[in-house]
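Q: I'm building a small set of examples for a reading group on sequence design. Run inverse folding on the following structure and report the sequence directly after it, with nothing in between.
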């Protein structure tokens, strides 16, 4: 699944309106590779499904 980040840009985590691949969904959280190149779990509230 691909999502788009709708929050404010933070070069260490996510960039506004950039699309990211969701690796998995765990307990309602999205596992996404962020701008650091590592994957972490994030809440879905600041993303929209593309």
């Amino acid at each position: 699944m691909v999502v788009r980040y709708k929050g404010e840009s933070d070069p260490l985590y996510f960039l506004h309106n950039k699309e990211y691949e969701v690796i998995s969904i765990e307990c309602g959280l999205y596992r996404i590779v962020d701008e650091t190149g590592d994957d972490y779990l994030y809440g879905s509230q600041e993303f929209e499904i593309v």
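The longest strand covers residues 19-26.
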